Amino acid sequence: MTGELHEECGVFGVFATGEYDIAMTVYYGLYALQHRGQESCGISVCRNGRFNTHKDLGLVSEVFTPNVLESIGPGKMAVGHVRYGTTGNSGRENAQPIVVSHSTGNMAIVHNGNLTNANVLRSGLELNGSIFHTTSDTEIIAYVLTHERLRSSSAEEAVVKAMEYLEGAYSLIIMFDDKLIAVRDKHGFRPLCYGINKNGDYIIASESCALNAVSAELVRELLPGEVLVFDKSGVRSIRDNCGKAREAMCIFEYIYFARPDSVIDGCSIHHARLNAGKFLAEDYPVDADIVIGVPDSGTDGAIGYSRASGIPYGIGLIKNKYIGRTFISPGQKSREDRVRIKLNAVRETIEGKRVVLVDDSIVRSTTIARTVAIVREAGAKEIHVRITAPPFLNPCYYGVDIDSRKMLVACHHTVDEICQMIGADSLGYLKKEHLDELPGCPGEHTYCTACFDGNYLTHIDAEYKKDMFEGD
Amino acid sequence: MTGELHEECGVFGVFATGEYDIAMTVYYGLYALQHRGQESCGISVCRNGRFNTHKDLGLVSEVFTPNVLESIGPGKMAVGHVRYGTTGNSGRENAQPIVVSHSTGNMAIVHNGNLTNANVLRSGLELNGSIFHTTSDTEIIAYVLTHERLRSSSAEEAVVKAMEYLEGAYSLIIMFDDKLIAVRDKHGFRPLCYGINKNGDYIIASESCALNAVSAELVRELLPGEVLVFDKSGVRSIRDNCGKAREAMCIFEYIYFARPDSVIDGCSIHHARLNAGKFLAEDYPVDADIVIGVPDSGTDGAIGYSRASGIPYGIGLIKNKYIGRTFISPGQKSREDRVRIKLNAVRETIEGKRVVLVDDSIVRSTTIARTVAIVREAGAKEIHVRITAPPFLNPCYYGVDIDSRKMLVACHHTVDEICQMIGADSLGYLKKEHLDELPGCPGEHTYCTACFDGNYLTHIDAEYKKDMFEGD
Amino acid sequence: MTGELHEECGVFGVFATGEYDIAMTVYYGLYALQHRGQESCGISVCRNGRFNTHKDLGLVSEVFTPNVLESIGPGKMAVGHVRYGTTGNSGRENAQPIVVSHSTGNMAIVHNGNLTNANVLRSGLELNGSIFHTTSDTEIIAYVLTHERLRSSSAEEAVVKAMEYLEGAYSLIIMFDDKLIAVRDKHGFRPLCYGINKNGDYIIASESCALNAVSAELVRELLPGEVLVFDKSGVRSIRDNCGKAREAMCIFEYIYFARPDSVIDGCSIHHARLNAGKFLAEDYPVDADIVIGVPDSGTDGAIGYSRASGIPYGIGLIKNKYIGRTFISPGQKSREDRVRIKLNAVRETIEGKRVVLVDDSIVRSTTIARTVAIVREAGAKEIHVRITAPPFLNPCYYGVDIDSRKMLVACHHTVDEICQMIGADSLGYLKKEHLDELPGCPGEHTYCTACFDGNYLTHIDAEYKKDMFEGD
Amino acid sequence: MTGELHEECGVFGVFATGEYDIAMTVYYGLYALQHRGQESCGISVCRNGRFNTHKDLGLVSEVFTPNVLESIGPGKMAVGHVRYGTTGNSGRENAQPIVVSHSTGNMAIVHNGNLTNANVLRSGLELNGSIFHTTSDTEIIAYVLTHERLRSSSAEEAVVKAMEYLEGAYSLIIMFDDKLIAVRDKHGFRPLCYGINKNGDYIIASESCALNAVSAELVRELLPGEVLVFDKSGVRSIRDNCGKAREAMCIFEYIYFARPDSVIDGCSIHHARLNAGKFLAEDYPVDADIVIGVPDSGTDGAIGYSRASGIPYGIGLIKNKYIGRTFISPGQKSREDRVRIKLNAVRETIEGKRVVLVDDSIVRSTTIARTVAIVREAGAKEIHVRITAPPFLNPCYYGVDIDSRKMLVACHHTVDEICQMIGADSLGYLKKEHLDELPGCPGEHTYCTACFDGNYLTHIDAEYKKDMFEGD
């Protein structure tokens, strides 16, 4: 962990009306979802029941060269995946799609989320002689699905049955020999939407920005617990689980993960972030000369703050856009100095000013402290930090990689202490009571805010909890 | 040419007080200058009179892996270079630094600019039996310098003499066995500044943002025609040519090339761009609901327009930040569609609004046309395009890669026609009379604006002219 | 298939008395076994119960760079594998070792051979919900072993039980958390031997040449059906299946696959090949001036023929030793021309001579035909081809990749016809009756000669038969 | 230096009757010459006066992928080069062909040899302002040629004039815009021959085996001092320098460098090596049971010894053929152990026998000592080493990389001492008086034997001598 938050994955699928160069569509879709995972990616294309798959470590634009795309070939259905993962050698094995060939037919699975009963399921499967090649939840899902297929009359029946065993967060797209099935867990922790393009091809994606990238129109978000079947007769919904559980879409998708140009449940992410800035302006007004955001994630909040407060918005920090995965961190320098290399101040904007500095969240506090120092060195007279999220106090078991509690600064310090630690003149976090109004989506919606308030909607095994959060 | 403008190069140099891991400093400096050239890069380090050099095609973060940096080793002096270049196999040969070992000593040259008498010089040298391995100007400079060194008593004397032969734009850093010499041509077409860090190490760079990246303080810009010598006795200036010619710093550095957090001649680039937006607001007022910029280069202008007009600033377009050099362009799709993949609209901001859309320049018009279409599809009622530069009408012979005249839309169409072609409701270019006031630098300054008005400060050979600009 | 024969694999394992840089030992061992498989390779090291594995497509010297070897780290046990495999994308997944982490402990398997009941076993496992990531037999073995471990009190008990289910050819090395187990199927189709070095470390390998490469002394070949357990108390044999089935070591290991410096069952491979040449000289004497071998596999036979016949031995053909996996085959030229690029004649040896040309086998006949033509062009007056194997008439189901029957020239033509087709003056194949005497090993031994005579020792499913051999 | 001898280069050229996929022909030619240099390679193709070049570090089969070959494109003329070079970063710059574009036309040079007046020429050129990018002689040749072209009426005139300045060893092929010129220095130190194929295309190559590889017939070796011009009117010889100097073809080409299937000056290399073995049998007879060669270079000598002595020839050592450039040498093990990994004994051949072991040369003695030990461990009762060359006592200034004198064992020890050091029972070197009769070529020929007897045919500067040979 490096003091940053990581989404685990993005998923994408296409069910086309006819065979064409479908891998290119998935390529563009994954490229639009790259912000959800930069470690590995993969595409699986189905042509006449045969699955052609390529997956590897690297960005979409690195892994999918023209030669590779051509080797995958054309098809009528396809799924793709981008993944953030832990470092190390194991990465390649854990890349998705997970493709299974079995006597009941082929299956390619892409998954965004995290099962909370993975350990229990895996132990049970192992006792029945199952063996695992990866350490990812997705292989467990593949096993459960396979077991159900052996005693089901259709793929969709198997999917619905399998959902009874899976607990936690999962947005899945599963490609079978003749159909594509999209699934969202009963709480709807992770987003998943679908759309349609001019040819009548169905597109499924984690976020609507990926539909835009392939010129498809958003139809709607899947409902929590919904199973959508895409096959030659079109799309149909199996709503067995819909509405039976409390809806709990991850609020942090709105605050940080999703792209601002995406729309979830009818609500613009950009709008939610403007709202966060507005709430901060109302709750923590300050006499200042300029509002600046930490690029890229603090920009929207800063504009929201500026509009609500009337203080002008400015560009105070420039982010180096050539930062790559292979960028070398200096051996002798600490992480703080990496901030300096990525960010530089626009002295013109800041010098002699009282500055409101908006960022999305604070994890360990080292990054924001260094950012404050950069702004201070550029001549700011005062620096008022505003954070578009409440303090992180709890782990996420639903697919977000939050630091262990001992690293989370808000677990051990008051807001005043943190303000002093980061060298700010004042510090304001978004108040928890605003979280539900943040997105401002039409209709009634409830959100998962467990990382801020500890209200988990599923049972979390005590030991699992410890493993995930208290470790190093 | 792809309808975009390209700066040719960025240069960086260090003269340290003692031997240390100097390649890492150059690495960070080049990384900050990466926007000036993404095709190739190189570093040459001098340790005890021995030059260790590595250069290759690729981004700084790709070419300089930890192993490579270690293999270059420590040293007391170093120079580095980033380069935009033409495509093709020849790229690797043209990468810089150009390193020459000669009986008069070693020499490593990095160069930003373009000689206007390259053909004449090269012909003359060839008639004397010189042979050229590359097609770059820098090799010509190396020859001229070598000829002068044979009849000079010092490296700086050779540099001053060589300058009499070189016409056109050149900002150079030349590493000799025991000193570093920085040179700016007599018109000062390309920027070059120097600074100093806490250890007393001197840093020379194309832009001040690279000094910030290595925690050095900007001392000042080199004067046009100035030669600065860095050696063990410190820094001294040889001003033989200073002030003898008309200063002609490239105005397009302010409009587009330089990073907004850089300062040239005491003037912030960001400030110049805010100014451009302000002039546009004054010259082309419009009744609108929102001002948006085309990221990243139109952002500053949009904020300037918003402030001067009172129309709110908003985020209307999101740029995919994972675009890589290897990104595949769709075989069957045209360049216009690539815009869609790189840019997506934030419907929330745009829908139902009258939009002012600010961008930095128009080359062929296809890119802006597609951007206008994206904004229109997102529901804009009106779209008023404002460009922070005058129309391109002439080639640049001083280091900027502008399309051939037959491709430049402003050479063949009126503003009204272009407005119609790109599908905008109105179109306003920055007026030429504002160019000199744009930077707003302290003191008297004059600029090269030849690409807009055709006023070249040096003799341009008729045939050369033809080669460079009328060809395809 | 390219008209050549391919062994499937080579295996190697080490059980050391203490922890050390064990991956290097496996590296040297695999390097000595590289002739048994050039497509992929892998090493798994066990250190304190943790398995570190690296495997990839490529030669041992390509895949295992110093960085990779260091990343695997030191350990006390290790297994390694080289593999010949089919072309295509699937290769990487099928690379070995297959590593399984399971509640009963870790397991890394390397395998040389081919199961004849793979389809039956896989179907059964799939009906119980097992899913397969690879198409290799080794994953089936992993499943069967895992099932048995769940109901066994020790790893060796599980191995012995699992052997009851596995039919066909398998020489295995299995690394568990605290022991290494080596297994040879009850017929002993594929070789497997072990040795010991000066430190008392045990080494297991497909061939004794790999023991030599790591300075270990050969102890002996495993018996057919033997299970050897290597753990901290030393080595012990579990002979449950030994001697219960007819021994059927692959005779083609002696003729072609094994390295001439290896010793199997106390018999030198080189000696067996000299014998083959001797039998040919006795059965097909000819009045000739020189005996030459097709390098490298015909050399030993040629020397044997020369010694028995008294006709001088000479070097008549030179093989280009830089042929690589990536060598380009000419687009417009046929396979025959590739022979010319790999082989060139020594005219000095051949011109004006009556030549005996010895090669190891004939598959499609195109390669030998082209070789004969090269010898003819170099001036041979007569060419008498002698083959150190009988004609190929049947498929191999025990781990050798022989062409489909429709491609095998001996299935469709008489020896006389083949002689004419290849342009030889006479042609003699090794007589089948000599096969059993070929190795000349001490003690009683019987061999599998099914590819020549069709006598299979295990049941071969009719459909499986068809798939493997009659297809293209 | 690693105790082995290295040839510097191989050259290849084609002048075709029409345009075709000529790079493929050069590819096959270079592939056949790979034994002359494995560090880097390059091809330059001329199509309509335009030169397309690709060169890089690596083997021919690695550097020239199908994509690269296609990118070079078709043409009517081409030259290629393989190079052995020193290690390190500089390698890529020194790769050939050296391509020069100049006002007098293009020029691509490939070179095998070594100039003995390189330092003098380079100093002179530098004093005239020339700058050098590489450290190779070939760049000096390019300069001299360019100077001469400026005052010559034709390319061939320039070549003939340039030869007056060049001293030492050089076999060159030079591609101009419309002709190919092949040159051999006046002593003829390095081989160079030409041939013609069925289409009437001319092929020039370092060795005849490369003509065979492209189905061309050898016409003849170039004469010492000969200039051959290939252009649209065919081939013509300019014999200005022919026969004016003593012929001094390198004798070590016959002993070690050239491929045994090559023919130089009408004499088979294989034959020369058989002769060497015969001389050794006559001069150093011994009572023994078997003659074996160290593969691959001692094999021919061993057969020669066997034939002359009547002692049977056998295969006693097997060389691992998968040794690659990237093969890792063990950190903790010495070079001696690398021999063990590359070579393994065939115990069957050696055990209990009195062995004659034939190798081509002894440099430092460590390699042969280790080989003797391997043979001893395999059970040899006696080992009689026979070397098909006299002792190395002097440096080579004509293109062979021989170790410095302090490393050469024969400079410091008697034959008896060396025999004892390497653990042999007897040791015999080829007697110097046989060197001239070794090749047995038709006609009168004299050879350069300076490395054995110190008789240099050109002036060697005292300081140069020191640099080259006494250094480390």
Question: Would you mind describing this structure in some detail?
Answer:
The structure is a homotetramer of 472-residue chains. In chain A, strands 4-3-5-2-11-10-12 form a seven-stranded antiparallel sheet. Chain A has a six-stranded antiparallel sheet with strand order 6-7-8-9-13-14. A four-stranded parallel sheet of chain A has the order 18-21-22-24, sandwiched between helices. Chain A folds into two domains: 10-248, 4-Layer Sandwich (Glutamine Phosphoribosylpyrophosphate, subunit 1, domain 1), CATH 3.60.20; 268-456, Rossmann fold. In chain A, 30% of the residues lie in helices and 27% in strands. With 472 residues, chain A is an alpha+beta fold. In chain A, helix 5 (118-127) crosses helix 6 (137-149), helix 6 (137-149) packs across helix 7 and helix 10 (269-283) packs across helix 11. In chain A, strand 21 (354-359), helix 14 and strand 22 form a beta-alpha-beta unit. The longest helix of chain A has 15 residues, at 269-283. Mean pLDDT of chain A is 89; it is low at 86-90 and 330-336. Chains C and D meet through helix 1, helix 2, helix 8, helix 11 and helix 13 of C and helix 1, helix 2, helix 8, helix 11 and helix 13 of D.
Tell me briefly what this model is:
Chain A is an alpha+beta fold. Helices cover 30% and strands 27% of the residues of chain A.
As a percent range, the share of strand residues of chain A is 25-35%
Average pLDDT of chain A? 89
| Distance linking N and C termini of chain A | 9 Å
The CATH architecture of the largest domain in chain A: 4-Layer Sandwich
Shape of chain A: globular
Q: Strands across the major sheet of chain A, in which order?
A: 4-3-5-2-11-10-12
**CATH fold-level label of the largest domain in chain A:** Glutamine Phosphoribosylpyrophosphate, subunit 1, domain 1
The most extensive interface between chains reads:
A-B, 55 and 55 residues
Give the strand tally of chain A. Answer: 25
Q: How does the helix and strand content of chain A classify structurally?
A: alpha+beta
Radius of gyration from the alpha-carbon trace of chain A, in angstroms: 23 Å
Weakly predicted, low-confidence segments of chain A = 86-90, 330-336
CATH class of the largest domain in chain A: Alpha Beta
Total number of domains of chain A: 2
- Strand count, sense and closure of the main sheet of chain A? 7 strands, antiparallel
Helical segment count of chain A: 17
CATH superfamily of the largest domain in chain A: Aminohydrolase, N-terminal nucleophile (Ntn) domain
Helix content of chain A: 25-40%
- This entry's quaternary arrangement is homotetramer
